[in-house]
Write a structure and sequence with these properties.
heterodimer; A: mainly alpha; 3 domains; 7 helices; 3 strands; B: alpha/beta; 41% helix
Chain lengths: 156, 93
């Protein structure tokens, strides 16, 4: 998609003034469709036979507050014109020559990803997940998770 | 707001996390009194639930099918260009 936007910029730069990209970070305390995403990863396609009724009943049967919060953060805008010019300058390429779109789009994707990650809020769930992921042994106790989380929280 | 600001086209680029991203972003734009604009995403990332697909289309969500070969899909590219060029806000997942 980044490549498409960059191509659109090159074709539109004569007609429009500026195109700015805003990285958006949408974060969930709890993903209601996590099981569907996991099924999709296993099967390769969206679980067949899923209907809106089954989706809605799953959401409606959850206790109040169990869905958690959603965080939406908008990052600083990136001016594509400045970004492309900066890329050409740093890579010492001739401004008249054709820009390597594959490399440029990869670079922009990386930068967008970094910005989105930086905007991520630290939630209780992410602390628990980190303590489990970085635990070296196969088993973990609640006490260990609690101390690991409080240590991380103090560090933050 | 200057004339240059008014002519500036904004492309929102969220990271795909959930099927509800589109609706949450639309809701966030709506409560902030921001124009909703059109959205682009890949068909593979959309839930294959008819009702949700119908709802997504109604809020201006284009589901693009990626080209299997490495070439650019010119229909998709032209559509993206037209939408970005003629709308102040576009969302690309």
């Amino acid at each position: 998609m980044v490549k498409n936007v960059l191509k659109a910029y090159t074709n539109l730069k004569q007609h429009t003034n500026k195109i700015k990209i805003i990285p958006v970070c949408v974060n969930y305390e709890r993903l209601f469709d996590a099981s569907y995403l996991a099924d999709e990863a296993k099967l390769g396609t969206f679980k067949p036979g899923t209907t809106l009724v089954s989706l809605m009943s799953k959401i409606m049967t959850m206790k109040k507050g169990q869905m958690g919060k959603v965080f939406v953060k908008y990052g600083d805008a990136i001016d594509i014109h400045d970004y492309v010019n900066n890329y050409i300058e740093t890579n010492h390429s001739n401004p008249d020559s054709k820009v390597n779109f594959k490399k440029l789009s990869m670079r922009l994707t990386e930068d967008l990803y970094i910005k989105q990650i930086q905007e991520q809020p630290i939630t209780q769930n992410s602390l628990i997940a980190s303590s489990i992921l970085f635990h070296k042994k196969k088993e973990i106790s609640f006490k260990h998770i609690k101390t690991a989380c409080s240590n991380m929280w103090k560090h933050i | 707001m200057t004339e240059e600001d008014r002519k500036t086209k904004v492309v929102l680029m969220p990271m795909f996390k959930s099927y509800s991203d589109l609706f949450i972003l639309h809701y966030a734009n709506w409560i902030s009194d921001i124009e909703m604009g059109f959205s682009f995403g890949y068909y593979n990332d959309s839930p294959k639930v008819k009702m949700i697909e119908r709802l997504a289309r109604r809020v201006g969500y284009f589901m693009l099918k990626p080209n299997t070969s490495q070439r650019i899909n010119y229909v998709n590219q032209t559509m993206i260009e037209e939408v970005i060029g003629k709308n102040s806000i576009t969302t690309c997942f």
